[in-house]
Each structure stands twice: as C-alpha cells, then as structure tokens.
Write a structure and sequence with these properties.
Elements: H1 3-26, E1 28-29, E2 38-42, E3 45-49, E4 62-66, E5 76-78, E6 90-93, E7 98-103, E8 106-111, E9 116-118, E10 123-124, E11 134-137, E12 142-146, E13 149-150, E14 155-156, E15 160-164, E16 169-172, E17 182-183, E18 186-189, E19 195-198, E20 201-202, E21 219-222, E22 227-231, E23 244-248, E24 255-259, E25 269-270, E26 273-276, E27 280-284, E28 287-288, H2 299-304, E29 310-314, E30 319-323, H3 344-381
Helix pairs in contact: 1-3
C-alpha cells in the first residue's frame, strides 16, 4: 500500500471516529420536551431515560446534563438509544459503572463508561408487569421495587420485590404491614437503611396519598443535611400547594414545612426530573402551567406546556436561577416528537455530519490519486536507461 492510500485511509478513519463520537453524545442537542422520564445522578451528571408528553408511547432516547456547571448554559448530550421505548419506568445506579433500568419488570443494563446497553439474563420470581412503580438501590447492589399499576388489567400493587444486581435474580419481599396499593409515588433510601415512600395515588380509592397535600408526578431529592425536598406535581388538574415542601428526617416523627418560592422559581411544574450536586437542586423537563391548571385531555396544550428551562435552587440560600431555552409551539401532530422519541434536529445534524464526512473523503481521495499519478509520471521521466552492447561482459575484469 503506497503512502497516499495510507493517508486517505487515515482521513477516513479519523472522520468516521468523529462521526461516531458525535452521534453518541459528544455534541450538544436540544431534546424534545417530555414528562414521565426516569433519571439517575452520577458524578454530577443527570442521566434521563425515555419519557414522552403523555406517558403512553415512551421514547428510546437517553440524554444527560452536566449539573456541575451551575450558572452557565447547560447543554444536553445524546447517549446510545435504549433497546426499547420507555415511559414511567425506573432507573438506579449501582455505584460501579452500571445503570439498571426497569421497564414493565424487564431489566436493562447500561454501562456509563462505554455508553452501551447490555441484555440481562434474568432468573428468579419475576414481578408481574407494571408501570409507575418506584425503585431504590442499597449499598449491597439490591434493587427494592415497590408498587405500581398495570393499566391493561386495572391492577395496582403493594408488593415489594428485590433484584440482585450481582446474580441478576428477582425475589419477593415481605408484605407484612405493607402500605396500601399505590403508584406514582417516590421512594427515598435513607442513611438509616430505611426506605421512605412519599405521595402517589392509592390503587383502591384512586385518591392521593396524604402528605404535604397529595400529589403525583412530583420530584424529591435528599439533601446533605438529611432533609428531603419535594417539588411540584399535580392532583388531577391542579398544582398542589405548597409547591415546595421539606421533610426533616432528623426528628421523630418526621416533620413537614412549606417553603415559599420566589418569582424566579417554576411556579407550576409537573412530570419533571430533579437532581442535586450537593449545594443545589436542579429541575428540568416536565410541563408547566401559567395558572396551575393542567388540562391533561388536550394533547396540544400539554405539548405546548412542556418545560425546556433548567431551574437551579441554592439549597442554603433558597435563591433560584434559570437557564432559559427556546422552543417552537406545536399546532399539528407532526411535532418535533417522533414516534420513537428521537429529536429531529439531532438527527438532521447527524445526517449533515455524515454528508460532509463523505464529501471530504471523496475530495481527499481524488487529491491523493492525482498527486500519486503526478509523482509517478515525474519518476518515470527521470529513469536512467541502460543499453547493453552485444559482446560485452558485465563480469569482465579490467586488464
């Protein structure tokens, strides 16, 4: 292989590598708005999986946000697609490179180091299929999976199942003194090894579980001082009050206090995700409302109410900041949310990168070929011709 072909192949490999890196999340994207996502926080990165405006179809899209960049425009980054569409699922991190995603009792494993999904060979007593359940993981790698509902059979659950992330095995936990059936609640794993279940909907009465006013589709984070901060949510159509409340887990019994929020805070937010980097609480995605009323029957109202801002609360000073982004209103079903959840703008960007890469490879190849032919012609012109004379002897020694 001549040097020009080697150079051409080197350019091809470089451009292909650039494309792969770009398509796997090295390039910021503007993700489509969504609710019903699940999320985990790892090393000051908020990983978000699936979701859609209505919590029905779901998406295969996985994205992340660097939440260490407080006070600066925070771009989202695209990750490798989930093997299936996901909505109202659960995600936990095992502390050792792997995120486990539970969707309808099926478990998927995602490696954060190489950005790849892997199948899991599950055994044990697999829970009944459900959605809108809740899950936490303990320090031993055991996932505790509680509640949920099956909308097809109209069945709700109050069983607790646990999944061993070492053996990939499901087991059934105790139901002694278990709470009533419920879904759309939140679970917090406390340092005392207790699991605290907050809010949600009672599966039998379809009433909201009493707390700092019953709600669903809200978020909760555990602050460093042991305080749990809940935010937003809804109860049927209205935004519950207080919008933000704190639960002190250092007292017995635990005590609720309401928090007033400033005009910089999202006044009404539901179906969002939340994270903390230790000093701040970060809220993203979900849907907002100007008056606290969520019309869940009008799909265009929901889509146009989707939140594209990133809100940040300083937990110590109670000061809010917001990184605003722009988005287009939707007037027809042909919105930026494609059926499989991929963002059209991101796909167009990838296609453009591919086209540019192909053009550059062709140009590099043509130039290398022309240069090679020119050099070959010049070398041919400079060749020294040897003419043999009949009767001469190359081996003859001089006298």
């Amino acid at each position: 292989m001549n040097i020009f072909m080697k150079v051409g192949l080197s350019y091809l490999v470089l451009i292909f590598t650039l494309f792969i890196t770009t398509s796997n999340g090295a390039t910021p994207i503007s993700p489509a708005g969504r609710s019903y996502s699940c999320s985990v926080t790892i090393n000051n990165k908020l990983y978000v999986f699936g979701g859609d405006p209505f919590g029905i179809i779901g998406t295969t899209q996985a994205i992340y946000l660097d939440i260490s960049l407080i006070g600066t425009p925070n771009p989202w980054f695209l990750l490798t697609d989930i093997p299936t569409s996901v909505s109202a699922a659960n995600a936990v991190f095992n502390g050792n490179n792997t995120v486990f995603l539970i969707n309808y009792s099926t478990v998927y494993a995602y490696n954060i180091s190489n950005n790849q999904w892997y199948p899991t060979d599950i055994n044990g007593i697999i829970p009944q299929s459900r959605t809108q359940a809740t899950a936490v993981i303990d320090k031993n790698g055991m996932i505790w999976y509680f509640g949920g509902t099956n909308v097809t059979t109209n069945t709700s659950f109050n069983d607790i199942n646990y999944f061993d992330t070492i053996t990939y095995s499901w087991s059934v936990g105790s139901t002694v003194n278990a709470p009533t059936t419920r879904f759309n609640m939140i679970s917090i794993f406390l340092p005392s090894r207790e699991i605290l279940y907050i809010g949600g909907v009672d599966g039998s009465t379809r009433r909201y579980i009493d707390m700092a006013q019953g709600r669903e589709l809200f978020t909760a984070i555990l602050a460093q001082d042991g305080t749990i901060i809940i935010y937003g949510g809804n109860n049927i159509k209205n935004s519950p009050t207080p919008t933000m409340a704190k639960l002190n887990t250092n007292t017995s019994p635990y005590t609720w206090t309401s928090n007033e929020i400033s005009s910089d805070a999202p006044q009404y937010l539901t179906g969002h995700v939340a994270a903390t980097n230790g000093t701040h609480m970060i809220l993203a995605l979900g849907a907002t409302s100007n008056n606290g009323i969520f019309d869940l029957t009008d799909k265009y109202t929901i889509i146009n109410s989707l939140n594209y801002n990133i809100y940040t609360l300083n937990i110590q000073t109670n000061v809010w900041s917001v990184n605003s982004t722009t988005h287009k209103s939707v007037t027809s079903p042909t919105s930026s949310n494609t059926p499989n959840g991929k963002n059209i703008d991101a796909n167009i960007g990838i296609i453009v990168v591919v086209i540019i890469a192909v053009i550059l490879v062709i140009i590099a190849g043509v130039l290398a070929f022309v240069f090679y032919r020119k050099c070959k012609k010049n070398n041919k012109d400079k060749e020294v011709k040897i003419i043999r004379i009949s009767g001469s002897n190359d081996n003859e020694q001089p006298q």
